[in-house]
Amino acid sequence: MNYEKIGNFILNLRKENNMTQQELADKLYVTDKAVSKWETGRGIPDIQTIKNLSVIFNVSEKEILNGERNFKKKEIDPNHHSVILDVKNLSKSFGKRSILSDINLKIYEGDIVGLIGPNGAGKTTLIKSITSLYKIDSGSIKICNFDIKKELEEALSKIGCIIENPDIYNELTGRKNIEIVKLLNNIKDNDYIEEMIDFVKLRNRIDEKVKKYSLGMKQRLALICALIKKPKLLILDEPTNGLDPKGIKELREMIKKISVEDNISVLISSHILKEVENICDKIVIIKEGKIIEEFGIEEVKFKNISLEDEYVKLFVGGNNEEI
After folding, report:
1. How buried is 1 (Cβ within 10 angstroms: 0-12 exposed, 13-18 middle, 19+ buried)?
2. Which pLDDT tens digit goes with each residue over 218-270?
3. Which segment of 59-73, 88-102, 275-289 scores lowest on mean pLDDT?
4. CA distance 174 to 197
5. What is the pTM of this model?
6. DSSP structural state of residue 209
7. Is pLDDT at 107 greater than 60 in this prediction?
8. DSSP states of 264-310 as a string?
């Protein structure tokens, strides 16, 4: 039994929960010296204390004794269609140049997934393939179990997206822009549209021309247009580009809210790793057209490192590639 490993595990659990040694000691009815002894590998708690630690930190007794958390893949109920996006063996080339190679990716209902990687890694190509803007060479893409090759209209009806820059008409009002999207998608639910206007905080400016909007306001209008058909998957390509800190915070809060309250899955491609870390449940790293790593953000947080640190570790030699 590795006392040092167990001690380091308890130390990390305590820090993760913003708890001092004295606070943990008080909860366990032991002295702070006992906690210090465990954390420095000079002993381990008794069986009853391990049981109490398990309850306090919501980990299993086995995890404490092994000195590491057992991260499990999200379990899916086979009786429900909870796989929203299912990409299998996807490959895409332009001429002789391979851009994506054997991509496999699943996104489940309500997940917020961050897609990160160096410039030219294939992030935007993957997004444009999922949205059928690019025709794939091989493999399959299913959205809510609809195959984009065979059931394109049904598959796309489940997607809302903002790719690169917000696609809106600057000479029209915000409301007119919404009405165009409403007509194109045969949307009848006017109450929902009014709710969305309030949700993105555009009520006081919705009848002004978009050319008078700030970039943050344009992003919020684009979000309404992306959500107007109540998609199951929202795709955002660099959604925070050009936004000030207030705009980034507002967008982050809105994305989290729709994920929780409406059970919408979100795929975000971004270079801003700190923001990805703040918002996403799962991280997918792509390099040279291949997915090289997938992990839950809780794994990064548990290690007391940043997503940027984890990202850099995956690229050999510290070659200063652009993130």
Report:
1. exposed
2. 988 999 999 998 999 999 988 887 778 888 888 888 888 888 888 899 999 98
3. 59-73
4. 10
5. 0.72
6. B
7. yes
8. -EEEEE-S-HHHHHHH-SEEEEEETTEEEEEEEHHHHHHTT--HHHH
